[in-house]
Amino acid sequence: MSKIKDGIINEDKFGKLGNKKKLLWVLKEVNDPKGKKDWDLTEFLRVRDSKEGLFSYEKWKNTFGLLCKVSWGILTTNSFDEINEFDDKKLTDILDYIAVANLKKSPGISYTDMNLFKREIEKENCAEKIFDQINTQIKPEIIICGNTFHLTNVVKDENFDFDDDWTYVDSQNRIWINSWHPNVRKKNYTHEKHFNEVINAFKKAEIQKQKSVR
After folding, report:
1. What confidence score (pLDDT) does residue 49 get?
2. Which residues neighbour 212 within 8 Å (Cβ) at sequence distance 6 or greater?
3. Sequence ranges of the domains in the chain
4. I want to staple 5 with a disulfide (CB 3.0 to 4.6 A). Which of 26, 28, 40, 198 is the partner?
C-alpha cells in the first residue's frame, strides 16, 4: 500500500506570518484512487506550477480554495472580502506558512464513505499516528479539522457535543477547531459563511484559552 508524506509545507516559513501562529489542517485522505506509489503532499502543495504541483490539478480550488482563505483569516487581519480578491498565486502563498496533514496516510477517493473510512483508520491506527506527528514533528498551536475532529480521539469530555461545539482547547493549550471539510457539499453553505464560522470559532477559542491560563 502506498503512503503519502504530509505535514509542514515550507520548513523555513512555517509559523512566520502575521500573528506567527503555527496552523495545521487535518483532513481525511488524499484523492488518489489508483494509489500505486508513494508521493509527497508537501511538495505537491509547495510547487505551484501549471504543469506540476497544486495548479496542475484542475479542481484544486474545491478543497484548497477555502482552506487558503480561512488560513489567511486565521493568521492575518485580512477580511473575507479582501482575501476573496486575491489572485491564485497570492491566495496560495499562504500554504508556505501552514501545515496540512491527512488523518489517513494511504490514498483514497474524492467522496469518502465515512463508515468505511472509520474502519480503515481504526485498522491503520491513524488517530495515534496523527498525534505522534502533531507532537513530534509539526507542533502546531491551532489545529483545524475538516470533518475529522471526532475521529482524532482528542476529546475526553463526555459532555462535548460534536455536532454543535466548534472549539476545544486540549491539555497542552492547543486550539482545535471542529469544522466542516473545506469541500463540504452543503446547500447554501457559502465560502463566506464557512470562513466566518471558523474565524469566529477561533476567536472564541482564544478567549477560552486565555481564561484557562489565568
Report:
1. 82
2. 169, 173
3. 4-212
4. 40
